[in-house]
Design a protein that fits this description.
By secondary structure, the chain is of the alpha/beta class. The chain has helices at residues 2-6, 25-29, 44-55, 176-187, and strands at 33-37, 59-63, 80-87, 95-98, 123-129, 133-139, 144-151, 154-159. The strands form 2 sheets. Strands 1-2-8-7-6-4 form a 6-stranded mixed beta sheet, with helices on both faces. Strand 6 (133-139) and strand 7 (144-151) form a beta hairpin. The longest helix is centred in the first third of the chain and has 12 residues, at 44-55. The radius of gyration is 18 Å and the shape is globular. It starts with a helix and ends in a 28-residue tail after the last helix.
């Protein structure tokens, strides 16, 4: 995951890795996205600080793995409740549904957008999405792979498998690199700024962050 973020033609990702779940206010002020990679969700002051970070416009990606565990109170933050790890039937599952209308996947919606179906998933955690959640990807057996929740001004995404080669082989597929970049751009609130419009082009007034006005 770290190497994927460091490989960018635009050099747009600066990655800081912490081995501790302790995050200060200064840490969060200097970042746009926090990734909790196969660890327990921070409790106490750090957990409260992380929630306020998302509510204020930050992005949070929770990657589930062996060390992940459900904790009371997460139903107020996550898009749903996750359960124990399970092996997929028939040995491996594949991604069978992607929401191409969502910013994370819209890049892959074209005829040469990339083939997510090649990746094999051997284990994942069950996720029951709440009414506040939105399913963005499912495995071909119906289990949820990726879900999102809007929390204040920011977003929380939950990926129900790992981001390494332990539970799946997505990391060695060609789509992995652009997929990770799209995840971070969406969570970080990145929008491509439009310097001008041509006749007939749609102007989305609901997204002023994606426009540049020149007097």
């Amino acid at each position: 995951l770290q190497r994927a973020l460091e490989i960018s033609e635009e050099a747009s990702f600066q990655v800081t890795v912490r081995r501790s779940t302790s995050l200060s206010a200064a840490d969060l002020e200097a970042t746009d996205v926090v990734v909790l990679n196969d660890i327990r969700f921070p409790q106490g002051a750090t957990g409260d600080r992380l929630r306020r970070f998302v509510e204020g416009g930050g992005g949070l990606l929770l990657v589930l793995g062996e060390r992940s565990a459900w904790q009371t109170g997460l139903e107020e933050i996550l898009p749903g409740r996750f359960g124990p790890a399970r092996d997929h039937t028939r040995g491996a599952a594949r991604l069978g549904y992607l929401d191409y209308s969502h910013p994370v996947f819209e890049l892959f919606g074209g005829p040469r957008g990339g083939d997510f179906a090649r990746a094999r998933f051997f284990r994942s955690r069950n996720l029951e999405v709440s009414p506040e959640g939105r399913v963005l990807a499912r495995f071909d057996d119906g289990a949820i792979a990726l879900a999102e929740r809007r929390l204040g001004e920011g977003y929380v995404l939950v990926w129900t498998s790992t981001m390494d080669a332990f539970w799946n082989d997505l990391a060695v597929q060609p789509v992995f690199l652009p997929f990770i970049h799209q995840l971070m751009r969406h969570l970080g609130g990145y929008r491509e700024r439009v310097p001008w419009f041509t006749t007939g082009q749609v102007l989305d007034l609901s997204d002023p962050a994606g426009m540049v006005f020149v007097a």
